[in-house]
Amino acid sequence: MISKNIHTNSINLHYIDTETEGPVIILMHGLTANSHAFDGLLAEGLGKKWRVISVDLRGRGLSDKPTEGYTMKDHAEDILGLMDGLGIEKCIVGGHSFGALLTFYMAFHHAERLEKLLLLDAAARLHPQTKEMLGPALSRIGQTYPSFETYLEKVKAGAYMTYWEDTMLSYYQADVKLNNDGSVTQRSTPENMTEAILKGSFGEPWLDYIKAVEQPAILLNGTMNYALDAPLLPKEFALETVSLMKNCQYKEVWGNHQTMLYGQGAKDIVAGIESFLAN
To answer: Does the pTM exceed 0.70?
Structure first.
């Protein structure tokens, strides 16, 4: 993976690029995540057939972090600027969680730029206690820890971390910045993520977007327990969204909302994507 930056929509956007010869896939991570969220999929071979470009959305990772501008429109224009800058007229676009919602938004508002959709664990409805379920992960935002090891211990103590493999390490290393005293601080700030939630996730007519999507799509659903003895996206809610779309496949994969991106879940996701894109 090659680390790169591009100026788009008045900000510097960081992304990583396999630079593989082949069709382009642009992937967009979850709410507080970063471009290394898909390293597990790359480890299972996703980047061998496709040129995978994984983006640090604004306010996350190594991308600029303006104080405002976190609507879905802002995020979408960042990605369109990236595509324009790289000379990509149309490609496969997908994302995990918040990134999948952004994919829905772009499929509706910029249909001519998206060829096919890869939707990882996002739907019109999530578990009714999603806010409580995400609490422990969101509590890390903007926090400083004495060392990276201390930070990693907190991560591993999360109820959703039912599985660990070293492929995850690059994601959590990219999640924090190292301070001069050896401490680490989470790169995303509470203020920016609140903007992304209130002005990005909330208020959009998601059902209208989902029902109008024309592009072929696949929804990959991690159905194991995430928190509160339940998955973040229950299978029945995922299937409900699939039924609303004109041309969407469904695939259940190993793992929960987070662990599905690694190990057997990553194998399942890559196999699902390969089968879907082969048709």
So the answer is: yes
